[in-house]
Design goal:
It contains 4 helices and 3 strands. By secondary structure, the chain is an alpha+beta fold. It has a domain at about 1-60. The protein is rod-shaped, with a radius of gyration of 22 Å.
C-alpha cells in the first residue's frame, strides 16, 4: 500500500511512500500531513514502533567506539618539541 504525505522538511511537496517508509517517517515525526489530511503527532505512532526504536541498541561501531581524546594545541606543541 502507498501513502501520499507531506513532510515537515518540504510541507508544500506531496510525495508517495510505501508502508515501510511511511512508518519510518512517522516514527521520526517527519510527516506533516498524511493522505487522509490528518496532521501527524508523536501520539499517532503505534507503541510497538516507539518501543522498538527506543530499545534498539546503537550499531556495534557506535556502541564500542571510544570517545576521541581531547588534546589541546599546547599539549601537542609540547609533545612535538620534546620528541
Amino acid at each position: 500500500m502507498t501513502h501520499k504525505i507531506t513532510t515537515t522538511m518540504q510541507p508544500t511537496v506531496q510525495i508517495e511512500v510505501d508502508d515501510a517508509e511511511y512508518l519510518d517517517l512517522k516514527r521520526q515525526g517527519l510527516i506533516a500531513q498524511d493522505d487522509a489530511g490528518h496532521a501527524e503527532t508523536s501520539s499517532d505512532v503505534p507503541a510497538a514502533v516507539e518501543n522498538a526504536a527506543a530499545s534498539a541498541p546503537a550499531t556495534p561501531d557506535q556502541a564500542q567506539a571510544p570517545a576521541p581524546a581531547a588534546t589541546s594545541k599546547a599539549a601537542k606543541t609540547a609533545a612535538n618539541k620534546e620528541g
